[in-house]
Amino acid sequence: MRIAVLTDIHANREAFEAVLADVAAHGVDRIALLGDIVGYGPDPGWCCDQAAALVAGGAICVRGNHDNAAAGAAEAMSTLARKALDWTRDRLGDGHVDFLASLPLTAEAEGVLFVHASASHPEDWSYVTSDTKAIPSFRATTARLILCGHVHVPLLASCDLGGMVREQAFRSSLPIPLLPSRRWLAVVGSVGQPRDGVAQAGWALVDTARAELTFRPMMFKPPPPRFGRRACRKIWQCACFRESERCSYVRMRGFRSTASRLAKSFTPGVLRRSGR
After folding, report:
1. From first to last of its 276 residues, what are the pLDDT tens digits of the chain?
2. Closest CA to 99 of 43, 56, 148
3. Which of 36, 79, 99, 172 has the greatest number of CB atoms lying within 10 Å of its CB?
4. 103 and 208 co-located in one domain
5. What distance in Å separates the CA atoms of residue 251 and residue 229, rounded to the nearest whole number?
6. Distance between CA atoms of 266 and 235, rounded to whole angstroms?
7. What is residue 32's DSSP assignment?
8. HSE of 42 in the Cβ direction (CA atoms, 13 Å)?
């Protein structure tokens, strides 16, 4: 079975549409969404509708921490993330909230465990950022492959028969053989808000029959932006995105239009203060 794995869409409609088009071109059998459908971006309702349609068609979808918070759960978040969440909640209908609240924390199919964060305690939303941080996930399940998101930066780790966990080097866009003598954990890159410094949306393709995994970063061409770079930066700031991500995110072709469209949700004073 060929499974397309998408995570951390974060209400970025343009990126979601582009990745789904790329997924369709690769002839997959099933789609898996690893959570954080909403949060930060300007189209939470549309992305929820699209995710719900995919689930109705047989897709796997698990809940992320932003989905959980948008559905009403109390989550520990940074001040910026909290403000973005408040903005998101105002734009979700009851049906969207019910859909997010109904999502499970984990799912399993074809010997693969799907989870948003660490598999050891999914409800704690722990980040898997290294081979050391991957150890609890390997201990928590016997699945041959663990797929997670949450970090927004791709990572690959393996666990041998003796329980030794090692981070594995990989090259994007090239199939990675998942040797049967090891178990594997892959952190999939973000669709809507990558944090690896690469201006590309990311997803992964898993081929269970061939025992291969491919990380697939991709560029896409969104509608042209309505505002200049300085305006986008200020809109980004007022939209409560993380300070460390703002500059690289605005430079991405795939996100300039997203920042531009955010302007519709803010007062005209935002643009006046930007000097544009």
Report:
1. 999 999 999 999 999 999 999 999 999 999 999 999 999 999 999 999 999 999 999 999 999 999 999 999 888 888 888 899 999 999 999 999 999 999 999 999 999 999 999 999 999 999 999 999 999 999 999 999 999 999 999 999 999 999 999 999 999 999 999 999 999 999 999 999 999 888 899 999 999 999 999 999 998 766 565 555 544 444 444 443 443 343 333 334 444 444 445 444 433 333 323 333
2. 56
3. 36
4. yes
5. 8
6. 8
7. E
8. 18
109 lies in some domain: yes
The answer as to whether 41 is a domain residue is: yes
Number of domains in the chain: 2
Strand runs labelled E in 43-171: 60-61, 106-109, 112-115, 145-148, 155-159, 165-167
Tokens of 252: 């991405």
Asked whether residue 223 is domain-assigned, the answer is: no
CA–CA separation, 133 and 174 (whole Å): 25
Residue 64: closest CA among 89, 101, 110: 101
Distance between CA 196 and CA 189 in Å, rounded?
8
Q: What DSSP designation does 133 have?
A: H
Same domain membership, residue 156 and residue 186:
yes
For residue 81, the domain's CATH number is 3.60.21.10
Phi first, then psi: what are they for 156, rounded to 5°? -135, 130
Domain match, 244 and 165 both:
no
Distances (CA, A) of 184 to 111, 134, 142, 198: 11, 10, 10, 24
Q: What's the CA gap between 249 and 185, in Å, rounded?
A: 27
Which pTM does this prediction carry? 0.82
- Taking the C-alpha atoms of residue 262 and residue 244, their distance in angstroms, rounded to an integer, is 19
Full residue range of the structural domain in which residue 260 is found: 229-274
How many residues does this entry show for the chain?
276
